[in-house]
């Protein structure tokens, strides 16, 4: 949320990443994006000493910066860049955790176009190095969330590259993924699932 | 390195993103900042399957974005934010690796003001969760680089908070840290030290 003080200067009360959503379509009627729910969840995990996981800042390509006297540097021209990694990473019980989170309004399948080639490549790389890597998938309209190990995503990605379907069916996600029950605190308790399936 | 504008406010000249370097003075005669050397090193590690470590994007607070027709969204007003974590993290042999890199032109000590309270807090948190966490310290003028485990940094930080000196002496860094020899590829082979002291 942004508001203006009498001087005309704009102030911002929310996080950078949340702000960007103001300029983009919002999903569902819940008023909370998957990112907001995960940020709240990760904050809960950090505060309760459960895991230290952060969302990475949105990558920005800066073109022009002004250095006005007596005030902070102002970025006057910049562009959003495509991320070269997944959005979330951190540590749980000493292990490296890495994941991406995506949502769809579809009810019966999850389009693979939600992922980019170099995110997939990054997931392959971290898996090779012993990371715990997965995706968190929300069916916004159904309000159902699943954790799917990245190895399965890679299989579906390969299928697509070999001429197969451009999405994962909901049934496949139910079969290979793990349903995450929703709560109040934490909202999306994915570490419970991580603990169950990786430790 | 910081310098002051006529208004008296201090500006940092060292920024995380390479792009920002276009607007700011360069160091020494080497033409390479510590960040550039580490980015090249991490790229080498990724390409050779040694470790997957990335620098996080510079956190930016976005205030205004334009959406011109037929072209990409342009950020028209944004500000640099202070990072809430360290700059680098990733995975090596399944373990979570987390570090911050800083340089000084001093020759006999390393000022603790290079670190921020919440970076220190973040290091404490990840150590508690079993992470490998350290700082990479470059004495720019001497062109010497050391890896210092975050536990030692925390001790020096505590000493400062208790009224002690506001820096670590070079001697202390030599004693508790590990010298990293410089090379061509990779330029700063810190993983060699990590392998030796943590595995």
From TrEMBL, chains A, B:
Q: Name one GO molecular function term.
A: nucleic acid binding
Q: How is the cofactor bound?
A: Binds 1 Mg(2+) ion per subunit.
Q: InterPro entries from the xrefs?
A: Resolv_RecU (IPR004612), Restrct_endonuc-II-like (IPR011335), tRNA_endonuc-like_dom_sf (IPR011856)
What cofactor does this chain's UniProt record say it requires?
Mg(2+)
For the site labelled Transition state stabilizer, the residues are 102
Which amino acid positions bind Mg(2+), per UniProt?
85, 87, 100, 119
Which subcellular locations apply to this protein? Answer: Cytoplasm
Q: Which domain of life is it from?
A: Bacteria
Q: Do you know which Pfam families this protein is assigned to? A: RecU
Catalytic reaction annotation: Endonucleolytic cleavage at a junction such as a reciprocal single-stranded crossover between two homologous DNA duplexes (Holliday junction)
Q: What is its EC number?
A: 3.1.21.10
Per UniProt, which keywords does this protein have?
Answer: Cytoplasm, DNA damage, DNA recombination, DNA repair, Endonuclease, Hydrolase, Magnesium, Metal-binding, Nuclease
Name the GO cellular-component terms: cytoplasm
GO biological process: any one?
DNA repair
| Family indicated by similarity | Belongs to the RecU family.
Its job: Endonuclease that resolves Holliday junction intermediates in genetic recombination. Cleaves mobile four-strand junctions by introducing symmetrical nicks in paired strands. Promotes annealing of linear ssDNA with homologous dsDNA. Required for DNA repair, homologous recombination and chromosome segregation.
Protein name in UniProt: Holliday junction resolvase RecU
Task: Give the organism the record lists.
Answer: Thermaerobacillus caldiproteolyticus
